[in-house]
Amino acid sequence: MTELKTEEYYLSMGPQHPSTHGVLRLLLKLDGEVILQATPDMGYIHRGLEKIAENRLYLQIIPFTDRLDYLSSMSNNLAYVLAVEKLANIAVPPRVEYLRVIMAELNRIASHLIWLGTLALDLGAITPFLYCFREREQVLDLFEMSAGARLTYNYMRFGGVARDVSTEFIKGTADFIKKFGSKITEYEALLTNNPIFLARTKQVGIITPKQAIGYGLSGPLLRASGIKYDLRRALPYSIYEKFSFDIPTGELGDCWDRYIVRIREMRESIKIIDQALAGLPAGDFKAKVPLNLKLPAGETYVPIESPRGEFGFYIVSNGTNKPYRLKIRAPSFCNLSIISNLLKGWKVADVVAILGTFDIVLGEVDR
């Protein structure tokens, strides 16, 4: 009588783009559909940006930061210029601080929208994808109006921003946030209590608070596990301490919690933008800073709360017009540290939901 037995086998998920949200390869060791081991393979689009920065003037590095997390280029710009301003002791006009907050929160909304739309598409829902891109286009119109670009903005400058905003931009932003709350309600009507969406996300890919802290997770992943930590509150930068907003958290740390935390974050971004528009002062949009800026010898690290978590620049200066060393703390890369252990025991179909709720951008991972 022939003995029946199963054999373990390997499945290469990626490095093609669908469901991996970038050029990422996951080597899965399987027993049927159950994952026994998951090995992430990165570096397919490695750009060597940190080394390139050592051979560029400080000002010339700003456009490179756009290409890291290309879905939140405003946040990348902001983190970098804040680090340079801290080391150079550059004072920023009040109007600039408000403009930076408005841009950062608009970019948070745009980033969360493309995440939500692609997550829904990964799980088989087409309509939320179309809805999310509908509103994202409106944000990109505002960015094009102010920065002249729709993806890589190159808008922040040392001591200010590239150009002031127009009255049309202010009116357009006010109109957008006035209507956007009802659009989020539309997304929730499609997904939040949808039986199929709940089956794919509820109690799937659970990250405990201990695991989240132990693996150095940040952003929505950390807050979905119940840790109320947001750099806009914990280590306030710019003028975030002046604004009233909540820090949404989850309970189980599963895929659904990671979804609902980002949904609620978009509602909080509306509050912040509304307050920033109401308090936007008149004045200069840029301080006088030399183009060929030389930083004093020393080092600094400045993190911000990007849409994906703690995004920071560590700069070492030797007193010249180029950084001696530049190190980037990329949240997508750090958040992926848990993926090998997290995927064990789940099925192949769950990988799509788990990885989708991580919201990684590989340009940032392979910086």
TrEMBL record:
It catalyses: a quinone + NADH + 5 H(+)(in) = a quinol + NAD(+) + 4 H(+)(out). SUPFAM superfamilies: HydB/Nqo4-like. Keywords: Cell membrane, Membrane, NAD, Quinone, Translocase, Transport, Ubiquinone. Its EC number is 7.1.1.-. One of its GO terms (molecular function) is NAD binding. It is a peripheral membrane protein. It comes from the Bacteria. Gene3D superfamilies: Cytochrome-c3 Hydrogenase, chain B. It is found in: Cell membrane. Belongs to the complex I 49 kDa subunit family. NDH-1 shuttles electrons from NADH, via FMN and iron-sulfur (Fe-S) centers, to quinones in the respiratory chain. The immediate electron acceptor for the enzyme in this species is believed to be ubiquinone. Couples the redox reaction to proton translocation (for every two electrons transferred, four hydrogen ions are translocated across the cytoplasmic membrane), and thus conserves the redox energy in a proton gradient. This is NADH-quinone oxidoreductase subunit D. It comes from candidate division WOR-1 bacterium RIFCSPLOWO2_02_FULL_46_20.
